[in-house]
Input
Amino acid sequence: MDRKFYSNNLGSIQIFCKSAELESFSATAIALGITPAAVSRSIARIESRMGVRLFARSTRHIRLTDEGKLYYDECIRALQQLEAAERLLTGGLNTPRGTLRISVPTTYGHCRVMPVIHKYHQRYPDVALEINISNRNIDFIEEGYDLAIRLGQPKDSRLIARKLEDAQLGIYAAPEYLAQRGTPQTLDDLTQHDCIHFIMPATGKPMHWTFHCDGEEITLDIHSSIHITGDVLGCITYAAAGGGLVQTYDFIAAQKQYSNLVEVLTPYRGASRSFSVLYPHARILAPKTRAFIDLLVEECGNNKN
Output
């Protein structure tokens, strides 16, 4: 490695990252205690060396170009690695500490993750916890999250995914609904029932219902006049109140507040959806994050419902 290269450019990289965050050379100069001219020269040296424009400049503000965004993501990861290496050598990484920022979806968060978080906090009281419960996709770099739990596998190659479990699905309804409308016996019977659909925030379309039939997994688009957005738990609560049929995870139907739900169409069960914990690529994973991921995988892997 060229030590002269790193010593000459590490400061410039830090200036670049701060400029990207503040979107202003003047604000960067104030934050770092240098002159605006020094900031501008530093950015110009990087652009000249690489032959690309990192910022689109106007008279009032700056913004990253597409190349600048790519460079920023890589620089942030590199700086985090350097910081982690320093803490490791000074003993700061031996024990989980600091703040752990977690993003979890509503259903999995309430029913699966919260008990694990409680156990984690008891085990590592020096770690402060910030927990976001929502179904929206987060930006790890922009929002500073350490990890997220999400449905399926990520398409972003910059993220690592560790599978937690395949959550089994079933069709459930309240006894009073079934007494009034009858119990469906086949998938064709679903057209005669009130089916409660959750609208996916990413697509604006209803989540498909999935079944096993004759040894194959099939997905159905079922017409419904009952659409719920925002909080998927609203679908289960509405079904428990007698509103209709809902496809949900067995672990949700097993919760005490939904104990009145009855499973139907059991010959067609067997479908599942996988949940994974996601985190950015890092050669050195902070102990606070590693400890939580290990505990989460252990606890969720032992779930049977």
The mean pLDDT is 87. The radius of gyration is 25 Å. DSSP finds ten helices and 13 strands in the chain.
